[in-house]
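Can you give me the bound-state structure? Components:
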Amino acid sequence: MLNNEKINKFVIAVYVENKFGVLTRVTSMFTRRGFNIDALTVGETECPEYSRITISLSGDGYAKEQFINQLKKLYNVKKVEVLEENEAIKRELSLIKVKNDPETRGDVLSAVDVYRAKVIDYTLDEMCIEITGDPNKIDAFVKLISNYGIIEMCRTGIVALERGSGTLLGK
Amino acid sequence: MKMTGAEIIISTLIEQGVTDVFGYPGGQVINIYDALYKFKDKINHYLTAHEQGAAHAADGYSRATGKVGVCIATSGPGATNLVTGIATAMLDSIPMVAITGNVPCSLIGKDSFQEIDITGVTLPITKHNYFVNKIENLADSIREAFAIAKSGRPGPVLVDVPKDVQVATYDFEPQGIVEKKPLPKASEEQIEEAVKLVNEAKRPYIYIGGGAAGLGMGKQVIDFAEKIGACIGCTFMGLSAVPDNYERFLGMQGMHGHFASSMAQKYADLIIGVGVRFSDRATGNTAKFAKGTKIIQLDPDFAEINKNVNVDLGIVSDVFDSFTRIAEKANESKKPEWEKQVSELKEKENEIAEKAAKMAGDRMTPKMIFDVINKYKLPRTITTTDVGQHQMWAAQYSTFDTTRRFVSSGGLGTMGFGLGAAIGAQVATKDPTILITGDGSFGMNLNELATAVTYNIPLIIVLANNGVLGMVRQWQNLFFGKRFSETVLERKTDFVKLAEAFGATGLRATNIDEFENAFKKALKVNGPVVIDTYIDKDEFVLPMLPPGGSIDDIITDVGGKDDAK
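Here's the bound-state model for the whole set.
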């Protein structure tokens, strides 16, 4: 609280009981404690009784510690782990609708090629691009493609796993 | 054996050792009340005037005993009326189980009559809650609710049971009372580290909070203070946790704390926090709090360590265990310089008090009222309060002869808490119980006088009547240029007649002699007594740390009545 640490982005993986209302309990805590998150994904895991929530947010060391502590206090939360930058595989998917303009079409398609993205819809006036990858790669792609007129875009938020054969639940 | 859901609810309460519940019937809990009727030889139900009163009563019951307080309300408005009571318990970490009925599962989500998503409403103000839509989960959900309510850092748990689940039948076999989950024990290294800090300290201050209330560690704290030459202070929630008639005990610190206690904390070089959370009302501006002072924090809740202030050593553990282990290992040491400094602070505090007493003239001051109460009150008296100036005076001036004797809403500051809580505390302990209240707070939930009369609960209600909302007025006086916006109560309530109308006894005191007589008379009445006690509308609670200020900004004197700075 009193530290003037710099703001970092971090990713937290949370195992929660796969029960009615648990996501609300988790997100309600963010509101109550004033945490502003960047992205959140939730889905099934290797164990049917648990869901995995992956949360991306920015903050200083104090915010990070508080966030983890308050998550751990929730009854349906079984495991909370910070995924460190160099130990985690992070992926995000994005769908981006771009203007299909004959003047820029070639540049857009080159960008799609270089970034190993895919065009999944193509009409006279728009193209829809699907891109998967590390969030930084997507950021870079979005920045580039914005020069050609983004009509609409959505991102899934990060999903992430730790490298190696270990599991979070097994930790 | 086969039982209905409603019978399972009551049987599980009985199984968990519950002997008293507070509540109010309604459409979606008729079955539960029918089961209460069936088991009425095993469990007492107290019918309050309002569900909020039931929640506060369950809370007071718990504060006075440490047991889990239980309240029951119907769906919709019944459940929402519990909300303030549940939040009050949450902020002060009070173990409570609230049971609500709800509309049948088939009507859930359809905005049915008296339907409210009460688990949604209470999500941020309960430790946990349950919506039980299957009868096979009912008994275990209630058992879990008790386990959660009393384990670790205690708190309220709500169990919402739709009507069809109350009506359905299922097998029930009674089990034992669920045990508290054991708290972690501090490691040897942690204890060593704490002992090192204690041994190095020249000016130690033992700081007792609500987490130590009721642990019965008064003797241990005193022995430790004696051993290392420390002084002792407490938070508002830590009042009555340790005996107050001990010379090293300086009383409450913080926004309205005792001068000597707050100043000693400032000058200390080590604060040993025992079940404290360094709330804003205790610390003032955290950027200026305890600068250069080492802090040890003992708490069962890991999330409290470094939450409000950075500490040098946080030990998440069974507070009693770690404290006694640190006390045992610490070196014995005399600290005459620190003792001298502390006794000078106490002298200064006395000087301030004497000056204030001189300036009082012949008016009846709060201090005089509490002197009378302290003189005549019976052993083991529980002091309950509402919220405002009277609460702070009660915290500053009341004496306590044992633990769990101070029942007051600290964290949430709930006006209207007192009467319900006093009823709960008295029912739980049968000990003499006093409610200190003000005309503002009392006006919020005075309907519970009916409850006190119905059950003939002996309560002495000292109503400090100044015709204003005194605490807000004090702020307006000091910080808002005496613009007394909406804090003057131009009501014509005659509280003596009001008490009589409810079937209680009403007495009036306009000066200290009348108050003394009234209080002595009240002690002889078997039932609730209201003493309408007139005090000046411009009394101040002092000392005061201004909002956002630190101990350096302490206000001990506001001069004459018309000379507030």
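A couple of observations. Residues 560-565 of chain B have pLDDT under 50 and may be disordered. The CA atoms of residues 543 and 556 of chain B lie 4 Å apart.
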